[in-house]
Amino acid sequence: MRSWISVGRTERSEFRQFTGLPERRFAWSGLRDYAIGCGAAVDGSPGREPRESGRRCMEAAEQRRKSDMEPRRCSAAHAFCMPMTYGFTAGYLTPLLRSESQADHHLSTSPISKQEITMQSIHLGLSILGVCLAFCAQTNCQAQTQPNVVLILSDDQAWTDYSCMGHPVIQTPHLDRLATRSALFRRGYTPTPLCRPSLMTMITGLYPHQHGVTGNDPKPDKSLTDSQYGVLREQLISSIDQHPTIPKLLGQHGYLSMQTGKWWEGNYARGGFTNGMTRGFPNPGGRHGDNGLEIGRKGMQPVFDFIAESKHADKPFFLWYAPMLPHTPHDPPERLLAKYRSADRPIELAKYYAMCEFFDETCGQLLDHLDQQKLSDNTLVIYVTDNGWIQATPDMNLGKEWGHGFAPRSKQTPYEGGIRTPIMVSWPGKIAPAEYPDLCSTLDVLPTILAATGLDAMPDLPGQNLLPLIQDGKPLDRTYLCGESYAHDVADLKKHETSLQYRWCIAGKWKLILSYDCPTDRYAFVHAANDRNPQLFDIKSDPYEKQNLASKYPAEIRKLAAHLQEAWHIEKPAIGLP
71 and 140 in contact (C-beta within 8 Å)? Predict the structure, then answer.
């Protein structure tokens, strides 16, 4: 077996071929350093087979160079071998650029004394140390540009129902802690107050009229067979195949992704997730989550296993944590229900309060796990709610026709109780905790994630990247915030306007709600009690929308209505709008 000292012209030519270096010669000191990095001997004693070990390192260098568009965290092996390779190719490890004849003469004739070897070893060691530190710093910087991303989605929870949002009874200590280390937007909104279109908006960054999922189900029709209705359901699901999604986009850059909880769009893989819990339609129970709905209620182990898998694979991850909490059934652990049960509180309300804390506990388990795995500092956590909820209680006297657990002006409606949500964005060391009065939307989730992970922005998205505001203090370019609300059951899968019930627009303190005629469905009772004429509220002084000021400020109505038409022109008229 030859020692690396005897390598000559052929091997050095091969090295240039592998690395793509220009036609020039490096002196023995550089070649020798590279050899040591590959584990070869330099004093005539046997080392690893030079052609094999050298080729292996050079192939690793070439592979690394070709794959640099897919950033990865470095392993211990990379941290040792790759600085040796890059150190030589870039000339970091004492390259002496000489003529070809000088280099060949030096290799073939220069004696190497023990003293020279000792001094060169000292210099080499210092060079290696410096390069390793520089390389690892560079790699660490690259890894930090690829944060993990965790999206936490509450299901059916009012914007007021957190202790950090001022609720006098409900306790949410874990989300309170998240709020203290987040950019907190108290005036956050979801553009639509129904779970399926709301979730679809977050994963695509589009309004319902853009992504095509405006309601939870195709309108039931007794004249259709189960198979025929299944065709309509699949047609609605297929909208997910037509749009980029957060996991699809991140997956192109090396991310693993996990779906848990609510998911309406068939199997998790159709959304671009690499991992997931939901089998999806047409599997039994696949309407909106099947196995995925167990997360939170039955523990967090699938989430912890996914995080462990991502760490083992040395890849960044995206987690969709959307448990059906505090959503019905309101069946909290007895230990929590006991905290909220009282003689003067309806049991329905006590159960809902306990479910809010139950959900908070699961969020705490997730956030604590990130801390325990030392992942929090490089993890972007975003918190939102899919839509609001106001608990119905017997004392509201809603009548027998009211057939659901939520009260009027909450879920499925464009009032604050249906569309408003706190939005939290946490990234330790990158985003300073603060509160922002700015209007914010769940439409902003996707562009913010793209920016945080270093991906190119998508053109023409209706939402905004929040990072310039919460990192650099640059104001958002946002005067208006808009939304749209549709019937629960989709009347026409191709013409979205058919099922449109409301549009709303906020500018400053003003909020306009416009209503539209649409076919009745199973949830018509939800909207029967609402005023169908234009409604204008000063939501800064009247956040519960008790006083309709439309008759006093017609100019504001015209201005906001004109913006809605400019943003999305529709044909059917708003009820009562001149």
Answer: no
